[in-house]
Task: structure prediction
Amino acid sequence: MNTAILIKTTPSRNPLYSRWNSLVQKCYNPNNRHYDNYGARGIRFDDVWSPSNPEGSRNFIRWLQARLDEKPELAKLGFMLHRPNVNSNFGPENCELGDKALVTQSRTTGVLSFQMVVNMRKYKRANPAASLLQIQRVFDTKISTNNISRALRGACWANVNEVEPPIPNSRFVKPE
Result:
């Protein structure tokens, strides 16, 4: 299917349109389950992608297709839209494509930093019996124990591995 033709004629038939529409729902529909993390926080679209702009969806699809053409591996493996500034709007100046590991590093539901992952790994090495819940409390964070486990094991934050090696088998262990 030629996506360029669909951009010009009927953007809603373009396979990438669903990405744009999903973001619209998160930002503008109070009934959407993700609205609290986007629209309720004031996250909207820049004018160029805005649903009030007649060319908004087309502009988004063009931008997204250009990024996918630059990084075809993301199209094959799956991609997520990443906003480096999680408190700013969706727009070409604040969005990039990334894999799931990159995007989960910047979630607002508990943001892990490079240094926090290093410190958590050091803490776990010094306290091997510490449960993930204890680590969560020590670091006073809302980051899920699942994400803490993934960071400790190196399943995400692979860029930390050179500074502080991952800890295998750092899975959730219920405290006694």
Summary: Strands lie at 80-82, 96-98.
